[in-house]
Write a structure and sequence with these properties.
Two copies of one chain form a homodimer. Chain A is an alpha+beta fold. Chain A contains seven helices and 15 strands. In chain A, strands 7, 8, 9, 10, 11, 12, 13, 14 and 15 form a nine-stranded mixed β-sheet that branches. Chain A has a six-stranded antiparallel β-sheet with strand order 2-1-6-5-3-4. Helices cover 27% and strands 28% of the residues of chain A. In chain A, strand 14 (240-247) and strand 15 form a beta hairpin. Chains A and B meet through helix 1, strand 5, strand 6 and helix 5 of A and helix 1, strand 5, strand 6 and helix 5 of B.
Chain lengths: 270, 270
Amino acid sequence: MLCWLDGLPANALPPADRGLAYGDGLFETLAVKDGRPRLLQRHLARLAEGCQRLAITLDVSAVADELERFAARLGEGVAKLIVTRGDGQRGYAPAVNQPARRILLGSPFPAYPKENAAQGIALFPCRTRLAEQPLLAGLKHLNRLEQVLARAEWQGSEYAEGLMCDSSGRLIEGVFSNLFMVKNGELLTPALNRCGVAGVMRGLIIDLAASAHIALQVRDIDGHELPAACEVFVCNSLYGIWPVRRFAAQSWQVGALTRTLQRLLATAED
Amino acid sequence: MLCWLDGLPANALPPADRGLAYGDGLFETLAVKDGRPRLLQRHLARLAEGCQRLAITLDVSAVADELERFAARLGEGVAKLIVTRGDGQRGYAPAVNQPARRILLGSPFPAYPKENAAQGIALFPCRTRLAEQPLLAGLKHLNRLEQVLARAEWQGSEYAEGLMCDSSGRLIEGVFSNLFMVKNGELLTPALNRCGVAGVMRGLIIDLAASAHIALQVRDIDGHELPAACEVFVCNSLYGIWPVRRFAAQSWQVGALTRTLQRLLATAED
């Protein structure tokens, strides 16, 4: 596995790192194609916001350069960037202005079945709920035990993703995806101000919808609204858009708006 | 820093560890005195419960042996044991029956002021709330960003600890301690079935109170109940019991029951 630590090839991490001790950090998962990191500016913008909210000191322009060099070396696959607050002493108190540690891990592109994007997927109904924590909502931070528990709820290939609600029963996201639906001709995606990860692909789709004059609302969506949806899809920055064909007793055809967005995405990606 | 990886001296961690990637693991912080880990059986029991709830495969008896050897080598100080699910591939899905990784870190005993236990401390009112997640409540898992945010709320030595409430305003715990109070002659400590860490020292104090026929309730405690308390203290397995002398506009004398428990603790610890 290709691995860089603070810009240099490495195969090991200092054991006092606060990323390990407390999950005190953030990550980004970037598709790498033709030696280039895709959607780089969007990933960097989210990372910068996360660092600002967690008061992690990171030189984002240096990270941009590092990601480009790493992607050139990787060629094709996935670049996972982990940013931690760096080494800690005992105790939770964070050192002030300590420069963040960057860990870059390269891996092959996941072997997603082609049918997922073409014919759609079945969504597993996860029992694991997302706790509501506004201070961390939206961030792609390293505290991901809820996702680990949710992903462990199903095995096998029948379900390509799982749907997670918050503790109040609102629809939030997939385990590793964001969620969209179409209702009354309008695109809807859950507000992520209490929990959830504000995905880079979600942001791109919101912008594409605006450019194409597709009505879109970002709002709280109760679980009971799902049956009234006429299209449902999930998205992330690796696979793009997967239509949802089935969830519990509910089933959908792949809808026209979903197809439109898949097409817009195919030409829009940087 | 003394560091062992899976029972052997090491100074680095594999970067694909799921403890770093997702906080997918647990930890224990043990006082080491005269070459022995204190309250070892209680720490191991909590660790075993955590592994069972997170489906992490750990040979707890091997860990006991490892901790005893590590403590003998360390002599005096703090042994921090981190248990992770081990290395991961890309994605949240945990491998089944993968043996856990053990990381042991030794550090000197913290230089807590002697007055903390003798005269009591001031408690900072943290604004950071604990999210309610029953699936993780009570566990000492590696997802600790809430504690990092809470601990960053104050600097300096005026406050030795901070008090955290859950998102509904119930009293839960300190940032690195559990909370007790005395009200109407009865010992109270918050129920930890929605959030919080069920500390080893908390468990010992509950047992000591039972042995000494001190009435005790573990229950939800609303923030508004604090002013009615006649004694308040915090505890953890490193420092034992610190009386709380001040919180916001509230102040207390060190009470008789707090002193009794400090005395019981001094003779009870293994």
